[in-house]
């Protein structure tokens, strides 16, 4: 399991980076934790949708603190 702090990415680059990480740095069936800022909460649903559409399993999604969110994703099998 690896953890990626994506808080420095704005929403326009956040989803690009999530896909890049899961496609290039995470092995099939491996679990990854993404940490990102939530702002108006729209990134939460969008990140869930992007991961689901790509075939990955969202295992958990919860508020980390007042401004951050964590998303736990299992990469799909090869």
List SSEs in N-to-C order. Answer: EHEHEE
Number of helices: 2
Overall spatial form: globular
Number of strands: 4
Helical amount: 25-40%
Alpha carbon gyration radius? 11 Å
CATH class: Alpha Beta
Number of domains: 1
> What's the story with the biggest beta sheet?
4 strands, mixed
Low-pLDDT residue intervals, each spanning 5 or more residues: none
Strand content: 25-35%
In spatial order, strands of the major sheet run 1-2-4-3
Q: The CATH topology is what?
A: Translation Initiation Factor IF3
Summed over residues and divided by their number, the pLDDT gives a mean of 93
The CATH H-level superfamily is TusA-like domain
Class derived from helix and strand content: alpha+beta
Q: What can you see in these coordinates?
A:
This protein is of the alpha+beta class and 78 residues long. It has one domain (2-74): Translation Initiation Factor IF3 (2-Layer Sandwich). It has 2 helices and 4 strands. The chain has a 4-stranded mixed β-sheet with strand order 1-2-4-3, covered by helices on one side. Helix 1 (11-24) links the parallel strand 1 (2-5) and strand 2. Helix 1 (11-24) packs parallel to helix 2. The radius of gyration is 11 Å and the shape is globular.
Task: Detail the topology: elements first, then pairings.
Elements: E1 2-5, H1 11-24, E2 31-37, H2 42-53, E3 57-63, E4 68-74
Parallel strand pairs: 1-2
Antiparallel strand pairs: 2-4, 3-4
Helix pairs in contact: 1-2
